[in-house]
Amino acid sequence: MYRFAVCDDDSFYRWQLARLLRSFEPWQKTGCRVDCFSEAAQLLAECEHCRYDAVFLDVQMPRMNGLEAARRLRALWPWVPLVFVSAFCEYAPEGYGLRAFRYLCKDRLEQCMGPCLEDLLAQYLAPCTLELPVDGEVCRVNLARVESIRLDGHTVEFHFADNTLPLPCRISLARLEQLLEGRPFLRTQRSYYVNLCQVQRLRRFEFVLRSGRGVPVSERRYGRVRAEYLEWQARFEEWAARF
């Protein structure tokens, strides 16, 4: 299930954005949850322990505007797609300066929301989605919301940043490695993988995650893990500097 946040001080536009998100046809298969907020502070408080697949932000709001909220969100979740929604398109350059995925004008939401969601799905969400066998059914998991993976015999447990219960499934280690190839996951010891996008810092023999939880790093692997993490961090900073 995909999870989105909508933040707008105008109740009509909160309702309209939520309606357009929920009615998008591809979500009928995967499921979709929309959390609505009337103030940026409420959204930021929720984002301290919840990871959204995308955030839709009004630009002009009282107390804290959408641009300032976006700066704070970028510090929490550098990769989360941000979509600005405003009646004033002159703010668009500043919004794109914050690596906004899209800038939508409120008077054209009905026409623009569909193409925006199609691009969001194709560029961000679908490439991050795994289809896993769980209790005889296929379960879709968005890897952007996974903070760590724990191996326990023939069972693989996916642990999520938003405190959702761990998801166990039975797949082989070889299959797991195949599914994670090219994605920002690093094996830290025999029983753990960590999502590098969820890492706050690395200390000796442990990754500290943005949620405050820790993922152990074995002494034998520590040197290699540290080198790979620093290399990934440098690539990310180089990528971010282009925007």
UniProtKB/TrEMBL annotation:
Keywords: Phosphoprotein
MF-aspect GO terms: DNA binding; phosphorelay response regulator activity
Superkingdom of the organism of origin: Bacteria
InterPro entries with a match to the protein in the record: CheY-like_superfamily, LytR-like, LytTR_DNA-bd_dom, Sig_transdc_resp-reg_receiver
Residue intervals of the Response regulatory domain: 3-121
Transmembrane segments: none
Residues that bear 4-aspartylphosphate: D58
Pfam families hit by this protein: LytTR, Response_reg
Protein task: May play the central regulatory role in sporulation. It may be an element of the effector pathway responsible for the activation of sporulation genes in response to nutritional stress. Spo0A may act in concert with spo0H (a sigma factor) to control the expression of some genes that are critical to the sporulation process.
PANTHER family to which the protein is assigned, alphabetical: STAGE 0 SPORULATION PROTEIN A HOMOLOG, TRANSCRIPTIONAL REGULATOR-RELATED
Protein name: Stage 0 sporulation protein A homolog
Lineage of the species this protein comes from: Bacteria, Bacillati, Bacillota, Clostridia, Eubacteriales
